[in-house]
Design goal:
glycosyltransferase; mainly alpha; 0% strand
């Protein structure tokens, strides 16, 4: 090279220069690490909300004034799980003064308290163990949900669906002494196995889920509808005999699993209505003691909350609106199987649940809908959804978790 020729100046590698920006570094992280970080950040925000409410909490039936984080995370139904772990289920149903079945342990399924009890055996206090199990199960659910969403959405959309799952209005339940987080985990696994058509692995998951949270009957309906769809589309999507038998078998198993707990309650107490009468005890404060007639509770609640004619009109409008939503482009992105689950679970809730303050928690298994809300990529849309979700989360804690002395709005 001539002494007069200028020395070439090496331009900085734009990739190396860009990799130090937070956005690029975030994208370079493995997806599972990003899910863990999203979940941890969401739970940190919720913890700040909970600590503030605990600081303001007066004494109540469960705790002293200004309880610690773990004690405050074990209010309401969390105490039923602790009681189940300590004393099991009654063989004789407790009765009210007027002879009706009173609230009791049979309304709560045994897997979650059984798992928490394992930790208490090795010396972990119940209040701590219940939260640890819920947090771990919630993280597992978020990781599986992300995998499920990648079957239908682009990577950034799937990750934002996880964000919405983690900051949802009832997301605090994933760090309280409730079985919901464990139920979310089994449901996410079951949906992923269904989408991937791994029918054999569904069997143990459904059985464990059926003894964790209600919902197996709704999943049985999903599986039945899945079988019908595959049958009618077999010309373009082959449905071999082996898969027909496997899908039908697991659908029947899900139905049996969904009915198993009422049968066990009957066998243990000698009362064929032990489970349903126990569940009905919780709505007696609203409408008294009534028989369970499928598809009437929402209209009973509408009449109680709104009177007539709105008590009839509003449930019908909600049902129609939800049905229409299932056919919108964003929801259709989730595929047939997830939409079948959304429809099946909504139908199940419509058939048996009496809407009151627990409605938002009971509707939480519809969480795959977060994938539809994650489709738009507008920063304003996404940022707005997160802000609104966190605001609703704090509102849910105020309304449903905080105890003000005369509270009749349990979570």
């Amino acid at each position: 090279m001539s002494v007069h020729e200028p020395t070439a100046v090496r331009e900085p590698d734009p990739f190396r220069r860009g990799r130090w920006s937070p956005r690029v570094r975030w994208r370079l992280l493995p997806s599972w690490v990003r899910v863990v970080l999203v979940y941890a950040a969401a739970r940190l925000v919720t913890t700040l909300f909970v600590l503030e409410l605990a600081r303001q909490q007066p004494g109540n039936a469960w705790t002293q004034a200004h309880p610690g984080l773990f004690a405050y995370s074990n209010l309401w139904d969390a105490r039923w799980y602790a009681y189940i772990a300590a004393a099991g289920y009654p063989t004789e149903l407790p009765l009210t003064d007027d002879g009706h079945v009173a609230e009791n342990q049979w309304a709560f399924l045994p897997v979650y308290p059984g798992i928490v009890r394992v930790l208490t055996v090795v010396g972990v206090p119940w209040d701590v163990a219940s939260v640890v199990i819920a947090l771990a199960a919630g993280l597992g659910a978020a990781l599986v949900f992300h995998r499920l969403m990648t079957r239908f959405l682009e990577p950034d959309q799937a990750m934002f669906a996880v964000v919405l799952f983690c900051v949802a209005p009832v997301a605090p339940i994933m760090q309280f002494g409730y079985a919901e987080a464990l139920g979310f985990l089994w449901l996410a696994v079951a949906l992923l196995l269904l989408v991937d058509r791994r029918y054999g692995w569904l069997a143990p998951v459904i059985v464990v889920w059926a003894f964790t949270r209600p919902g197996a009957l709704a999943f049985a309906l999903t599986l039945g509808l899945h079988w019908i769809v595959r049958w009618f589309t077999r010309a373009r999507d082959p449905f071999p005999m082996r898969e027909r038998v496997a899908a039908a078998s697991v659908a029947v198993l899900a139905g049996i699993a969904g009915l198993a707990w009422p049968a066990i309650a009957w066998a243990a107490t000698g009362d064929p209505g032990a489970y349903t009468d126990t569940e009905l005890a919780w709505r007696s404060a609203y409408i008294g003691y009534v028989e369970l007639v499928p598809f009437t509770p929402w209209f009973q609640a509408g009449d109680w909350w709104l009177g007539q004619p709105m008590g009839t009109i509003v449930p019908i409008v909600l049902v129609v609106s939800f049905g229409v939503a299932l056919f919108t482009p964003w929801v259709r992105r989730l595929g047939v199987d997830l939409r079948l689950w959304l429809a099946s679970y909504a139908l199940y809730v419509l058939a048996v649940f009496f809407p009151q303050s627990s409605t938002f928690r009971i509707l939480a298994p519809l969480f795959p809908i977060a994938g539809a809300l994650a489709v738009p990529r507008s920063p304003w849309w996404r940022g707005g959804l997160v802000v609104v979700s966190l605001a609703l989360q704090f509102g849910w804690l105020l309304i449903a978790w905080r105890i003000d002395g005369y509270d009749w709005t349990p979570p």
